[in-house]
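Researcher: Good morning. I'm working through a list of sequences from a screen, and I'd like to move beyond sequence-only analysis. For each chain I'm collecting a predicted structure so we can compare shapes side by side. This is the next one on the list. No need for commentary yet; just the structure.
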Amino acid sequence: QGLAGWQVTDVRVTLLGGAFDSISTTVGNYTGATPIVLMAALEQAGTRLLEPLYQFTVSVPEFAAGRVTADLGQRRAVIRETTGQADRIIIEGTLPVAEALDLPAKLSGMSGGRGIVTLHPGGYQAAQPATRASRPRAEYLPADRSRYRVCIPS
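Model: Good morning. Structure tokens for this chain:
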């Protein structure tokens, strides 16, 4: 788990060295020290919390375009392109996944049941300070060494 309790992904860690004493060093020493060292490395590396994005395409009747565009803005969407097609407006962009959970139902209400939305994975962006959240840790925080050492296997 990373600094805020979230899973750390897309990282390769390589142990380049370590001290060994054949009398007192055990595998447990390395097992217990690894999270402490990893936590320090994450702090020094300047890691950041990312949030997943959707790429979206919304198609709505012209009468609903204003309300839908305003709603997307409140959801922190970044609108990349808006085009007209017959009597419909097509809106494309990116949207945080957390903001899209009720979008299909809301879109239906704003468009009289005539709105269409498609969502595809769209990458990640740095989480905004107001949206950053921490998760409960599965174990004690390795940076809190006084409590963590009690949990280290021997």
